[in-house]
Amino acid sequence: MVGLALIMHEKGFKVSGSDLKQSSNTDILEEKGIPVFICHSPKNLPSEKDTFIVRSSAISENNPEFAASISAGLPHLRRGEFLAEIAKTYDFVIAVAGCHGKTSVTGLIAHILKKCGKNPGFMVGGKVTGWKYSGGAGGASTEKIFVTESDESDGTQIHLKSNIAVVNNVEDDHSWNVGGEQVLYDNFAKFAENSQKLIYGPSPLADKIFSFHKNKTALDLKKLSAKFADMKDWGGFQKINAAIAVEAVTAYGIDRVEAENNAKTFPGIERRMSVRYQNGEFCLIEDYAHHPTEVAASISALRERFPGYYLRVVFQPHRYARLEKYIDQLACELRKVDEVIVVPVFAAWSEKGKVSSEDLAGKIGKPAKSADSDWPALAKSLIETKRKKEILAIIGAGDIDELVRILSDSF
User: Fold this and answer.
1) What CATH number is attached to the domain comprising 67?
2) What residues contact residue 381 under an 8 Å CB cut-off, 6+ apart?
3) Among 67, 82, 118, 398, which is most exposed with the fewest C-beta within 10 angstroms?
4) Which long-range contacts does 39-42 make (Cβ < 8 Å, 24+ apart)?
């Protein structure tokens, strides 16, 4: 939502918004002159007759502010639907989807284009390290290009039309939120159908889903990522992401060698295997992993990077439906570390489910215990019990970043 607000503000529209609590995101908007109300109330609605409402999928129809906008007859779209409308205002669109890595690939594409002298509009689902904003309208150029991430979590990706569609990978995630696995896969197919060219990471599932597309390229990721052997990376993720991004920008028309060289300068995405503090043989890592495949990859990368270190993980499950679906797989992966502290589920907009963080800790067994989300108290305990040769990894996609902030400020 922040990126959309920034784009529309740069395009000259009057923008305002509301959220339940102040955050770095609301601060960024207010710095740009975009008013943000820290509550949801009908009083927040603008008085202008030509007001248009954009809502996050986290906002239900009985939300007091949104309900009042409906009663007032104001037109509205969900975030992903509105993103598709923004994309229509550009000459060339590169859209990135996939269950894992899409934020990094989107950021990489925007980074490469900027380094190559373009000034693209962009909408990234996270912050590129060193960039202040996650979205921007782009500047004047011969051809207006827009690079955007496409989210599969609410089904709105089917509305986004692109010149180049990129799908990193396809796996079952968010199926409970869109009507089942087949609907999820059909949505990926529709996303691809809405593109003139498709670039994707192959797998038996992806090959089947995209078999219909007449202008597609299935990437040999092992071969292509080998070109980035000297790229700073943990676990090989960024090499794969860089290979995908380079294929996208060369399909657009950027020189391959120039693209590859600029990809190697990408600073990464915040909250993705980010070193937040390091002193001697103690290291604090923050990571966004929340799906079993991501958790497995992150743990493997940490073990590879820090052999012989005590690996302690604080894990925040993300959404009850995901935890219920993947509790056994998550337990299997988290069991591979030396110690796990499981904190309460970050529910996002979902209702409380049948399983809890305590259930996950029980499934993990001996190396695990549960804790509440009293971040200051937990941070104090983690600091008091830290070992000399320890990796403390804070893993999750919810508000556990507040724990990271407290820890970083305490060392």
Assistant:
1) 3.40.50.720
2) none
3) 67
4) 40/64, 40/65, 40/66, 41/65, 42/67, 42/68
Q: Which runs of consecutive H residues, i.e. helices, occur in 72-145?
A: 79-87, 102-115
**What is the helix (H) or strand (E) element at residue 94, kind and residue range?**
strand 92-97
Q: pLDDT tens digit string along 280-312?
A: 889 999 999 989 999 998 999 899 889 999 999
Domain-terminating residue out of 244, 263, 282: 263
Confidence (pLDDT) at 334: 96
Do 36 and 149 have their domain in common? no
What 3-state DSSP class applies to 57? coil
DSSP, res 341: E
90 shares its domain with 63: no
- pLDDT at position 349 is 65
Helices (H) and strands (E) in the chain, counts: 16, 17
Token readout for 183 is 């609907």
- Are 89 and 150 found together in one domain? yes
Domain tally, the chain: 3
Q: What SS3 state is found at 331? A: helix
pTM of this prediction exceeds 0.85: yes
Residue 27: which residues within 8 A CB-CB, separation 6 or more?
Answer: none
Tokens of 389: 């040769």
In sequence order, the 6+-apart residues with CB closer than 8 A to the CB of 224 are: 243, 244, 246, 247
Q: What range does the domain containing 8 cover?
A: 2-74
In a domain, 268, yes or no: no
Q: Please check the confidence at residue 141 and state whether its pLDDT lies above 70.
A: no
For residue 334 the two structure tokens come to: 């988290």
Same domain, 150 and 257: yes
Residues forming a β-bridge with 212: none
Q: Are 42 and 127 in a shared domain?
A: no
Percentage above 70 pLDDT, the chain = 97
Minimum mean pLDDT among 174-188, 331-345, 384-398: which range? 174-188
Per-residue tokens: 98: 């996939």
Residue at 269 is within a domain? no
Please say whether the dihedral angle defined by the alpha carbons of residues 128, 132, 136 and 140, taken in this order, is positive or negative. Answer: negative
DSSP per-residue codes, 184-243: HHHHHHHHHHTEEEEEE---HHHHHHTTT-SSEEE--HHHHHGGGTTS--STTHHHHHHH
Q: Please indicate, yes or no, whether residues 166 and 309 belong to a single structural domain of this protein.
A: no
Token pair, residue 157, equals 């990706």
**In which band, very low, low, confident or very high, does the pLDDT at 140 lie, cut at 50, 70 and 90?**
low
